Amino acid sequence: MPKSVTPEYWDDACKHLARRDRVMRKLIPQFGEARLQSRGDAFTTLARSIVGQQISVKAAQAVWDRFADLMSGPTNRIPPAQVLEVPPETLRTAGLSARKVEYLRDLASHFASGAVHVRQWSSMEDEAIIEELVAIRGIGRWTAEMFLIFHLMRPNVMPLDDIGLLKGISVNYFSGEPVSRAEAREVGEAWAPFRSVATWYIWRSLDPLPVEY
């Protein structure tokens, strides 16, 4: 995959959202040419999400760099088979907990054995891909949805377990009042079939720096 890829549907999505939703009409122009971008490959993206669980972004980057140093080749494309070749105790020296080492090895074995159908994902439904991913230890629905948005760039994902999305909907639609998942889902009905794009702009309204995974 090239260094970064932007969805072809983005401009159409922005026009659609601006027509359908008054908040989006105001938000979208504030961020100019900024776009969702996808980097790296599937295994590496998911491995990074496991490494980063429950630690700060800065700490996660430091651990990732040490983990990548244990592999040979580019840090944006780590072969799953190589992770399985490194002894667990060596992986621990990167600053990984025993549990995260188990998760990374389980992820690597799913990819190396073909238990996940990477080549078929482009023709599979979102929920079918989520089902495959959550079968891997250490990957829950939220991580799978982030993967759909940031790696596969699926246009219509709404991660209702995402704290930032719920907070952004609260601020932009409910004057800061807490919102339930049901209320958030209702707001998202106007965003279909581009819920991922709307979610991205809601995140930007809280933090102007684009998120990348």
UniProtKB/TrEMBL annotation:
UniProt key word Plastid: no
Pfam families membership: HhH-GPD
Domain (HhH-GPD): residue spans on this chain: 51-207
Keywords: DNA damage, DNA repair
DNA damage keyword on record: yes
PROSITE patterns registered for this protein in UniProt: ALKYLBASE_DNA_GLYCOS
Biological process, per Gene Ontology: base-excision repair, AP site formation; DNA alkylation repair
EC numbers: 3.2.2.21
One MF annotation (Gene Ontology) recorded for this entry: alkylated DNA binding
Sequence intervals crossing the membrane: none
Class in the EC hierarchy, top level: hydrolase
GO cellular component terms given for this protein: cytoplasm; protein-DNA complex
Catalyzed reactions per annotation: Hydrolysis of alkylated DNA, releasing 3-methyladenine, 3-methylguanine, 7-methylguanine and 7-methyladenine
Gene3D superfamilies recorded: 1.10.1670.40, Hypothetical protein, domain 2 (1.10.340.30)
SMART domains, A to Z: ENDO3c (SM00478)
InterPro entries per record: Alkylbase_DNA_Glycosylase/TA, Alkylbase_DNA_glycsylse_CS, DNA_glycosylase, HhH-GPD_domain
Domain of life: Bacteria
PANTHER family for this protein: DNA-3-METHYLADENINE GLYCOSYLASE (PTHR43003)
UniProt similarity note: Belongs to the alkylbase DNA glycosidase AlkA family.
Protein name: DNA-3-methyladenine glycosylase II
Organism: Caldimonas brevitalea
Lineage, highest ranks first: Bacteria, Pseudomonadati, Pseudomonadota, Betaproteobacteria, Burkholderiales
Protein's gene: alkA
